[in-house]
Sequence to fold (201 residues):
Amino acid sequence: MKILLATHNKHKIAELLKILPQTNNKGEEIIYLSFADFPLLPEPEEAGSTLKENAALKAAYGLRKTGIISLADDTGLTVDALNGAPGVHSARYAYPDRADYPANNEKLLKELSPFKKEQRSASFTTSAALALPGGEIIFKEGKVKGFITQEYKGENGFGYDPLFFVTEAGKTMAEMTAEEKNKISHRFRAFKQMAEIIKTL
Fold:
């Protein structure tokens, strides 16, 4: 059985492959592909107004273009002091036409510079979507709470990980090993639920 991970993001693919099952409940091997296996396929436009809508758009696009069951997600950082920003625009917070992690982080720090630690509460949410032949889309969601630090901490992970302090872990996501992150992250929580669905396919 083949499943398309509807993304070009190598970091995300590496995380997902550590979470998702290698076989289904019948013992059949699951082969995971990604947009990297379809180099002529452009990224779909993320035109949704919510994380769930964007996840559905990407999963449906992958299925439509390749004919393969497709799995996608959209992840957003919600900062309370910024009225929920960057939210659905998290990946393209600094520049609307491209994802630039360093620039996103610098903009976030600048926007939050007037706020004290206790005012920098935030949460990460992942909405995962699985597009099946016949038009059905299955959704799962994962969330983790914390706050935005005032400086970079940690060398691991990607995106906002060096700035996102996970309250229950007592460290930023970038200070965690991949194993630690996968036990607690928003993406893990969403895709761990999705893994149970995939096993039944």
Remarks:
- The radius of gyration is 17 Å.
